[in-house]
Amino acid sequence: MDGNFLAGWRNAGRARARARAAHALWLCLILSLLIRPTWSADAPAPVPCAAAASQQLPLPQLQLALEQCFREHGNHLRIGDTEFDRGTALQWLHVEPDARRRKAIFAAFAPLWRALNADGSVGSPYRRMIALRSQFERTEGSQLQAAAAAIGVPPAQIEQWLVRILEAWRNTLTGPAVEPWDFRYIGGKANRALAAATVQDTLLPVTRRFFRDLGADVDALQVQFDLDPAPNKSPLAYTDFRTRGGQTPTGWQRPTAVVVGLYPEGGLFAMNELVHETGHAVHVSAIHTDPSHMDFPDTLFVEAFADVPSWSTYEPVWQQRYLGRAVPEREAQRALFSDVMLDVAWALFEIRLLRDPTLDPNVVWTEITAQYLNVKPHPELPWWAMRVQLVADPGYMLNYGLGAVLTAELRAAIRANIGAFDGGNLRWYGWVSDRLLQYGTLRSTQMLLQDLLGRTVDPEALLAQVARCGIRTGRPN
Ligand SMILES: [Zn+2]
Description:
Elements: H1 3-14, H2 25-33, H3 59-72, E1 77-79, E2 82-84, H4 86-95, H5 99-107, H6 110-117, H7 125-140, H8 143-151, H9 155-170, E3 173-174, H10 183-187, H11 189-193, H12 203-213, E4 224-226, E5 238-243, E6 246-248, E7 251-253, E8 256-260, H13 268-286, H14 299-310, H15 316-323, H16 329-355, H17 361-373, H18 389-392, H19 398-418, H20 428-437, H21 445-453, H22 460-467, E9 472-473
Parallel strand pairs: 3-9, 4-8
Antiparallel strand pairs: 1-2, 5-8, 6-7
Bound molecules: zinc ion.
């Protein structure tokens, strides 16, 4: 690789947003709620990545070893002398204009892929883990069953929904299949067009202004933003309770939240994430219940709700009002959904592998991405192995795929009740507090949604929104 290549690389890298690949609050919920029994405040001792090669490793240790592979390899991707982490690599894939460089960024994942997939045989670490996990689910239940129960539909229907959503996305794509290293770039036109309007120091002021316009003044709610660099700071953004709140002799004391994040380079992606985290923060402050229910309700609902305001950042109305410029609706929605659809694809991938762990993950991933994302088949590449959730919590990706269904439902229902809110709506916070947020853990997702919608959740609102992406050719431009 020539010197100019890497010099350009480093310069370009500094100018780019470095943000999570998708909904990084995944980690925060685990840390803050401790809702999953496999995670506890007493973190288990790390198991080295190399231990994953041992055929005898039991499931919990095998998962820990594979998770460690994401630290050992994923945090140290390399091209020549340049080292970068996985999140940075995924962000670069959205914005790097040179296809040759995008391919090199993609190829830098190879050590991580080898650690997880080895030679791809049934004895490879990931395939052994999925087989053990599938066995475990047969007695202990699956995340698919849990999610299905949470919204009151049969598990088989959820898989059908995921397929319908992916088919709807496929219908917005024309033209030749694209290389996997070009997929994110093609979807990221809006991110690039709005880069100058979303530089780092605009993120918080814009977020404050948007929430004030939604009737949720984050200063009045005493939300604490911890966005400055610090040693050993978590690379993933998260939001947690700062104070629990409750009845006092002088009246109701609201709970308060803290948002922790790092957005050194800005970007629409980072803007969306900060609005999402702030969505969690105002959720916390709206909880008005007894101490035993003073907590976030279940993950699926919490994540879907935080995306209600954050999806607004992909609306031209929002962009015009808060950034002073906007991209056309199709481009804006495409930027949102090209990331969402990858999550939906991963959700389907996990459902299929956990149901039949004899399947080859490379083949399953190639089929899904070729059929629905219009990506060129590369069955020789285990490029599914980019998300730590796949090994840390197999089956979890469903919360994102299905979360999008709930977010679209919530946005449509809120709009139907109080009118548009992408450009602000002072009724928003009072209304969502009253109808959705005040209960803490007192009401289940199914109860909240049934009351809100007067029916069971379905994917129609999301399908209608996907159609707003229009139809565009798959060529990078
Ligand atoms: Zn979140």
